[in-house]
Input
Amino acid sequence: MRIVIAPDKFKGSLSASEVIEHLTIGLLATDPVFDIRGVPAADGGEGTLEAAIGSGFTRRTVRVAGPTGHPLDADFALRGDEAVIEMALASGLAVLPDGVKDGRGATSLGTGHLIRAALDAGARTIVLGVGGSAGTDGGAGIIKGLGGRLLDANGEELPDGGVALARLDSIDLSRLDVRLGQTRFILASDVDNCLLGAQGAAAVFGPQKGLTPDGVAEVDNALAQFVAILAHEIGDKAVDAATAPGSGAAGGVGYAALAILEAELCRGIDIVLEFTSLAARLEGAALVITGEGSLDEQSLGGKTPMGVADAARALGIPIVAVCGRTTLTDAQISTAGFQTVYSLTGIEDDIAKCINHAGTLMEKLGAIIANDLAGHEKLSPSGRAPF
Output
């Protein structure tokens, strides 16, 4: 029996590859003749690079500016002339020095460096996976990293970060990398917020990056200045991009992607499933297992488990989900297309133990799934007979 395991990460405990590894151990310990194929998946945010590497892309490592300007090593993935960039690896909260947030000054500069490195490596289609960003600079750092110059009234280059954009007087794009015009950019994001205002990048996402209420207003005004000055340089498309869905993604990196890179906005999971060739890899499978750390109503809005479920359902393959915990009702589970859901909390009540011993518990879930497949009378941890 062929089983395809295509999960997202369990944030804070297991990567997607580790979920696959531990489930495989549990499944094979019960029935060693299973033919198990692992496909790490993601929804365009954190974990996207891992999904690319697991699908035949090659890892490349380059030195870039981190979110506060300090240099760090960040990876991107390359396959032929296709590249996948996970901006969080260069400009994300997870790579902040000592974890100290700098909502006013953090930059996307390192993501611009990753894009330039991908161009140097021959990429002419670049997937930009956004999410987990540390700053709210409207993608100004990306422009700088690709050769643009952001100047104050004295002709001096602005310091990095969103708040500095309040002093922006002109933008020089004359040295922007000419290869951008020959490259297709895909913005992989599920965020449809615009750049400015009450539903904009600063107001909605700024607080989680360290912005105070006063800081939110300050950065939002600075981003408005950025739009106005960019419009002097490239015309109305700068204004149109600011109101476009997705322009507020990743602290406004979506804005620079739409306005400067002329990127196509696509649902993150759809892009990941495309470059992982998941549909082709599902052929011949008798069961698909997907999942993520918390399976809840937000998951139903287009996160990884739903994308994988849609692909499996299109081929008529039964699908189950694994998770750390779930808040979904039986009706929601059924409507989503899952045969059942197996949760770590279904076999261990202590949340801390679920996080700290997720690998061992995942192996137990693998054994339970194998037993259910074998027709044992034992019910899954959700209390529903899965098959």
